[in-house]
Amino acid sequence: MMFTADQTLFPTPDLVVEVLSTSTEARDRGVKFDDYQAHGIEEYWIIDPENETLEQYHLIDEEYKLILKAPNIDVSSFTVAGFQIPIRAIFDDTENLKAIQNL
């Protein structure tokens, strides 16, 4: 991959997390998904607060593969070494506090 002058100032992130809303869902699953994939962002999480689920995509052979879509298990990042969080902690204040205390 060739870097432009702008990318050396603002490099491509390894992980992007989007939180869906009614007004952004089509964009997050459409143009942003395609753009992140095309720019080689290795990991993309889509958090759906309405259904309380997390989708984890991993870039494999230049295409996103859905690794998990779940409401209630631990998710481990491919790009942030050692980062693991219970998905429930994203949606539940008590579980969030427990997860923070375990960091």
UniProtKB/TrEMBL annotation:
Residues forming the Putative restriction endonuclease domain are 9-69
Which portions of this protein are annotated as coiled-coil regions?
none
Q: Which Pfam families match?
A: Uma2
Q: Where is the signal peptide?
A: none
CDD domains registered for this protein in UniProt: DUF820-like
Q: Which domain of life is it from?
A: Bacteria
This protein's name: Putative restriction endonuclease domain-containing protein
Organism, by scientific name, is Dyadobacter endophyticus
